[in-house]
User: Fold this.
Amino acid sequence: MSAPSAGPAPTSASPVLQVEALTLAFGGVKALTGVGFGVQPGSITAVIGPNGAGKTSLFNTISGFYRPAAGRVVFEGGDITRMPPPQRARLGLARSFQNIALFRGMTVLDNIKLGRHAHLKTNVFDALLYVGRARREEAELRRDVEERIIDFLEIDHIRHAPVAALPYGLQKRVEMARALAMQPKVLMLDEPVAGMNREETEDMARFILDVRDEWGVTVLMVEHDMGMVMDLSDHVVVLNFGQVIAQGAPTQVQADPEVIRAYLGAGDVGDLRRKLRGDPVASEAA
Assistant:
């Protein structure tokens, strides 16, 4: 795929999200060992690595589904390592999932509106009577979702459709819409283009860039599509066997010998470099 090249990485004295020496173990198996990196405000940071490298375990630890054995997760200067996922969501940390986690029997609109749940202040009494604060919050939510998010992701034509009736690519877009409804400061995307065709991948790449450029949302993503990673990212973190083996600008990571060995072993180095650049011939031959 070919996407607009990402702008220069923003500079900041303090990252909006900092992962410090994270270690995670399941029994005697270490999924993460001393993982550390920072995510700068307004950037697109990608986490890559071979299958089983620990990428989803890292995402689950950052978002609060796993508790690390050691290390810290720091968000906007505050330690959130022991904070439950709903509280992290209220602070502005939203995510999508590798396997779509939508309510398939509900409509697109209702799924997206659920993303705002963590921010609602209506109590049970207000909700039952549907007066005062409940009515105001509902009106504000519908306005934001319908006039901003749905329009932005170009899904107005399916807003009342049940999620189960949608093709896979549109379901992934709805999941991103639900994450945006959470009003994130950092949007975590777990394999946002997995299983998509070329056209769907290019659309999603455009949306990710626009979320960063137009909405000012910082993006942290796990992705296997190397062409998209290299085109969009300001910073790339490479995991292998639960450890960071390289990080830096996309051009630096492409040329790193440790990255080449992790992905290819004793194979053709030139072929890997073509894959990392998103060369279609190399991708088809793989």
